[in-house]
Design brief:
- This is Precorrin-2 C(20)-methyltransferase.
- With about 500 residues, the chain is α/β, with parallel strands linked by helices.
- The chain has 4 domains: about 10-135, Cobalt-precorrin-4 Transmethylase, domain 1 (3-Layer(aba) Sandwich); about 145-245, Tetrapyrrole methylase, C-terminal domain (Methyltransferase, Cobalt-precorrin-4 Transmethylase, Domain 2), CATH 3.30.950; about 270-375, Tetrapyrrole methylase, N-terminal domain (Cobalt-precorrin-4 Transmethylase, domain 1); about 380-505, Tetrapyrrole methylase, C-terminal domain (Methyltransferase, Cobalt-precorrin-4 Transmethylase, Domain 2).
- The protein has helices spanning about 25-35, 50-55, 80-100, 120-130, 140-150, 170-180, 190-200, 245-250, 260-265, 285-295, 305, 325-335, 355-365, 380-390, 410-420, 440-450; strands spanning about 10-15, 35-40, 65-70, 105-110, 135, 160-165, 180-185, 210, 220-225, 235-240, 270-275, 300, 315-320, 340-345, 370-375, 390, 395-400, 425-430, 455-460, 470-475, 485-490, 495-500, 500-505.
- It has a 5-stranded parallel sheet, sandwiched between helices.
- Strand 6, helix 6 and strand 7 form a beta-alpha-beta unit.
Length: about 500
C-alpha cells in the first residue's frame, strides 16, 4: 500500500519595484518564473500595475489570481464601513490563496515597490504566514526611484528622514514636516491640496519636488508649487530634501550677539513670552495665548507641548526633552536677544509647575538683563480636574508636586504633614513616574496620620483628552498602584463632600 504525503506550497511576497521591470531583483525574478500561482492586487476596472511590471516573467501555464479591491476610497455601504469591507476582502483573498497553498502549489504575491512598505501584501502575510512556509523578497520603493529621477540627495550625515502618508490630518502633516530634515510624502491623489498647504505652513514648499510615476515610461517631476492639483494620480509622491534646511539651521544655531545695542537702536523690544497651553483640548487654549502664538517666530518647549502648536509659515519649532528646563529657557532668551519673537510653552498654566519659573531662573544671568519676560496664564490641570469633579477646591487649598527631582523627599513629607494638619484640600501634581513608584503610597501614609480614611479623593487621568477618566474614592481606599504620571489627585479637606451633583468643598468653616 502506498502512502501519499501532501506538502503545502511555498508562499512568497515579492516586491517588483516602482514600475521599471529592470528594477526587479534577480531573486524576485527567479521566484516569479518558478511559481505555480501568481497573485496581484488591482483596482476595480483597472489593470494591476504589479502585473504589468512583472508580466514578462510569468511562466507558461501559470495560474493567475487577481485580487480586485471592492473599494479604493472611504465610501461604502458595508455595515463595517471602509475598514470593514477591506477586512472582509482580505479574509476572502487570503482563503483563495490558502486553497492553492494547501494543495501544494507555490504562490507568489506581487507587490509594487516593497511588500512591507505601505503594501497590501502585509495583510495577506498576517493571515497566511503562520499557516504556510513564507518568504519575503524586498523591492525598490517608489521614493528611491523618485529621488534617483530628480537626482536629489535626500538626507546626508545626521539628517533625519521621515516618510509620511498624505492622508494625515493637515495640521499634523505640517508639524511633522517642520520637525524633520528630509521627507517623503506618499498617498497623494485627492490629498494633494491639503499636502501642499501643509508644506507651505511648514516652510518647505519651495524645496518640495513632485514626482509622478517614478521609473515608468510616463515619469515626470516638477516643483510641487507648480503642480495642477486636479491632475495628481495615486502613483505620485513628494520629495523634500534634507539639504533644504541647512541654511535655516545655520541661522538658528548661530552664536548670540554680544550686545543688545542694535536692538535698542532699531526699537525692537527683547522679550520672551511664557505661555500655558492648557491641559489638552483646543477649547481650553485662551484667546490671549492663541493670539500670541500666532505672532511669534519661534516656539520653544518640551516636545509634546511644542507638538500642540499648529505649524504655520514662518514658525520654527525647538523641541527638547523633559529635564533640561533651564537650558531650554536660556536658548529662548538667546533667541530674544537676537531680536527674535519667541514663546516658551508649557502644558496647563506655565506658572504652575511649568516653564515660567525656569525662564526667570535663567534670566537672572546678567547677560539677559535687556530681555523682559512676560507670562500669559493658561488653564491649569488642577482647574480642569476640579471642574470635572465639581468644586472640590471651592475653599482654601494647597498645590504640591510629589516629584523629588528638584527638592529632597524630606521636604515633601514635611509639607504634606503641614497641609494635612491645616486641613486644607490638596492638589497633587507629578504623583508618580516610571522611576518614582513609591511616593504615592508614602504620601498616602503621611496624610492618613492627620486625615480620616473617609477623606474624599478625586483621581483625574488625561482630563480633557480622549482617554479621560475621573474616579472618586477615599484616602483609605486609594490604590497607589493605579496612579501614574498622567494622573492628578485632589485630596479633600474634612469638610469636602460628595453629593449627587458632584464633589465640593463648602466655602464656610464651622
Amino acid at each position: 500500500m502506498s502512502i501519499t504525503v501532501v506538502t503545502t506550497g511555498h508562499f512568497a511576497g515579492v516586491g517588483v519595484g516602482p514600475g521599471d521591470p529592470e528594477l526587479i531583483t534577480r531573486k524576485a525574478a527567479r521566484l516569479i518564473a518558478s511559481a505555480d500561482v501568481v497573485a496581484y492586487h488591482a483596482a476595480r476596472g483597472k489593470q494591476s500595475n504589479a502585473r504589468r511590471i512583472a508580466a514578462e516573467l510569468f511562466p507558461a501555464g501559470v495560474v493567475e489570481e487577481e485580487l480586485t479591491y471592492p473599494v479604493t476610497t472611504g465610501t461604502t455601504d458595508h455595515p463595517g464601513g471602509y475598514a470593514g469591507v477591506l477586512a472582509e476582502f482580505y479574509e476572502q483573498s487570503a482563503e483563495r490563496l490558502a486553497a492553492h497553498l494547501a494543495a501544494g502549489r507555490d504562490v507568489v504575491l506581487l507587490s509594487e515597490g516593497d511588500p512591507l512598505f505601505y503594501g497590501s501584501y502585509m495583510y495577506m502575510h498576517d493571515r497566511l504566514a503562520d499557516r504556510f512556509p513564507t518568504e519575503i523578497v524586498p523591492g525598490v520603493p517608489a521614493f528611491l526611484a523618485a529621488t534617483a529621477a530628480t537626482a536629489s540627495p535626500l538626507v546626508r550625515q545626521t539628517d533625519v528622514l521621515t516618510v509620511l502618508p498624505g492622508t494625515l490630518p493637515e495640521p499634523e502633516l505640517a508639524r511633522r514636516l517642520a520637525d524633520t530634515d528630509g521627507a517623503i510624502i506618499m498617498k497623494l491623489g485627492r490629498t494633494f491640496p491639503a499636502v501642499r498647504r501643509a508644506l507651505a505652513a511648514a516652510g518647505r514648499l519651495d524645496h518640495a519636488l513632485y514626482v509622478e510615476r517614478a521609473s515608468m515610461p510616463e515619469e515626470r517631476w516638477v516643483p510641487a508649487v507648480e503642480v495642477d492639483e486636479s491632475t495628481v494620480p495615486y502613483f505620485s509622491l513628494i520629495v523634500v530634501t534634507g539639504d533644504s534646511l541647512n541654511g535655516r539651521r545655520s541661522r538658528e544655531c548661530a552664536e548670540p550677539v554680544a550686545a543688545d545695542t542694535w536692538l535698542e537702536a532699531a526699537g525692537v523690544p527683547a522679550e520672551v513670552l511664557v505661555v500655558g497651553l492648557g491641559p489638552g483640548p483646543d477649547g481650553w487654549l485662551t484667546p490671549e495665548v492663541a493670539e500670541a502664538l500666532a505672532q511669534v517666530d519661534h516656539v520653544v518647549g518640551y516636545a509634546p507641548y511644542v507638538n500642540r502648536v499648529p505649524q504655520r509659515p514662518g514658525l520654527t519649532r525647538h523641541a527638547s526633552g523633559n529635564t533640561v528646563e533651564v537650558d531650554r529657557a536660556a536658548f529662548a532668551l538667546d533667541l530674544a536677544r537676537r531680536g527674535e519673537k519667541v514663546a516658551v510653552v508649557s502644558g496647563g498654566d506655565a506658572g504652575v509647575f511649568g516653564m515660567a519659573s525656569a525662564v526667570f531662573e535663567a534670566a537672572e544671568d546678567p547677560a539677559y538683563s535687556g530681555v523682559s519676560v512676560r507670562v500669559l496664564p493658561g488653564v491649569s490641570a488642577v482647574q480642569a480636574v476640579a471642574a470635572r469633579a465639581g468644586a472640590p477646591v471651592g475653599a482654601d487649598f494647597a498645590v504640591m508636586s510629589l516629584s523629588d527631582r528638584l527638592k529632597p523627599w524630606e521636604i515633601v513629607e514635611k509639607r504634606l504633614r503641614a497641609v494635612a494638619e491645616a486641613d486644607l484640600v490638596l492638589a497633587v501634581y507629578n504623583p508618580a513616574s516610571r522611576s518614582r513608584t513609591e511616593q504615592v503610597a508614602t504620601a498616602r501614609r503621611v496624610l492618613l496620620e492627620h486625615k480620616s480614611p473617609e477623606t474624599v479623593v478625586v483621581v483625574g487621568r488625561d482630563v480633557g483628552r480622549a482617554e479621560e477618566a475621573l474616579h472618586v474614592t477615599t484616602l483609605g481606599e486609594l490604590d497607589p498602584s493605579t496612579i501614574d504620571m498622567k494622573c492628578l489627585l485632589i485630596v479633600g479637606a474634612s469638610s469636602t463632600r460628595v453629593s449627587p451633583a458632584g464633589v465640593w468643598t463648602p466655602r464656610f468653616v464651622r
